[in-house]
Amino acid sequence: MTDFVIDANVLMSVLISGKAFYRIILSQFNFVLPDFALIELEKYEDLLKRKSRMNEEELTRWTYFVFSQINFLPHYALNSQFVDQAERLLENIDLKDTSYVALAMQLDLVLLTRDIPLHKGLRKRGFKKVMLFEDFLRAN
To answer: Domain containing 57: what range?
Structure first.
């Protein structure tokens, strides 16, 4: 199995959609997130519920499934060297994405995102291990 770091935008997209297609993707690949994604998820809980076409019970079941297929890494496990590198890389892009980029660097994995400015900014600064989630889906 191939591993990827995903950000909260990707996680939100998967949770909102509830598409059966994601069952296959989640079963074929390993996805890792920093625990910071949980904070972002809580922040947008109302939006998630509003945008999802599932009723509360379906959304709960879908959420259980999604969370059974992904791994979270606590902040304390992030190496400060990679956090510092990520912060420097993300200056003038978006510092709130530091933990995602640091985790991708630390684990030497590709970061999947739906954040186009983040993707473009990182690529422009020479960070190549980033891919738009839509491109990943087209390739798989």
So the answer is: 2-139
C-alpha pair distances (Å), 95 with each of 26, 45, 56:
28, 22, 33
Identify the burial level of 114 via C-beta atoms within 10 angstroms of its C-beta, where 0-12 means exposed, 13-18 middle and 19 or more buried: middle
Domain total in the chain: 1
For the segment 47-104, what is each residue's pLDDT rounded down to a tens digit?
999 999 899 999 999 999 999 999 999 999 999 999 999 999 999 899 999 999 999 9
CATH of the domain at 124: 3.40.50.1010
Predicted TM-score (pTM) above 0.70: yes
Q: What is the DSSP letter of 128?
A: -
